[in-house]
Amino acid sequence: MCMMSGLMQMIKEGGMRSLWRGNGVNIIKIAPESALKFMAYEQIKRLIGSDKETLSILERFVAGSLAGVIAQSTIYPMEVIILLFRCYLESLRVLHLVTCPVFVVRF
User: Fold this and answer.
1) What is the pLDDT of residue 104?
2) What's the family (predicted)?
3) Which among 21, 76, 78, 86 is positioned nearest to 101, based on CA atoms?
4) Rounded CA separation 66/7 (Å)
5) Contact 55, 49 (CB under 8 A)
6) Which of 60, 76, 71, 72 is nearest to 37 (CA)?
7) Distance between CA 36 and CA 75 in Å, rounded?
């Protein structure tokens, strides 16, 4: 099955809405992560830059890296909760826990 045939099959089975199935949970994760990353990046740039008008490439790289670490470290627990919730719902639907490697190794 190629990508186009898979896309057409999804549209045929669930309509155009099927293309966005599950995206709400993704937006709930991405929006705060992006906000945290932007805020952390700006704050770190301010700390690193002190009196300078512009930062060097290395300073921007460090600020961006630290911002990414801060944002991901903050959001990761929410990702785990979402995974566990999805596995739990799937286990109720299928009536066994094999679908999500034994409910994420029994949590």
Assistant:
1) 52
2) Belongs to the mitochondrial carrier (TC 2.A.29) family.
3) 86
4) 38
5) yes
6) 71
7) 9
Cβ contact 34:67 at 8 Å: no
**Tokens encoding 59:** 């300073």
Of 78, 100, 79, which is closest to residue 90 (Cα–Cα)?
Answer: 100
Mean pLDDT of successive 10-residue stretches along the chain, which has 107 residues = 82 84 78 92 87 82 94 86 76 56 53
Helix extents (H) in 1-107: 3-14, 23-49, 57-94, 101-106
Tokens coding 4? 């186009």
Q: In 3D, which of 62, 103, 98, 51 has the Cα closest to residue 80?
A: 103
Q: How far apart are the first and last CA of the chain?
A: 35
Structure tokens given for 88: 């739990």
CA separation for the pair 48, 17 (Å, rounded): 45
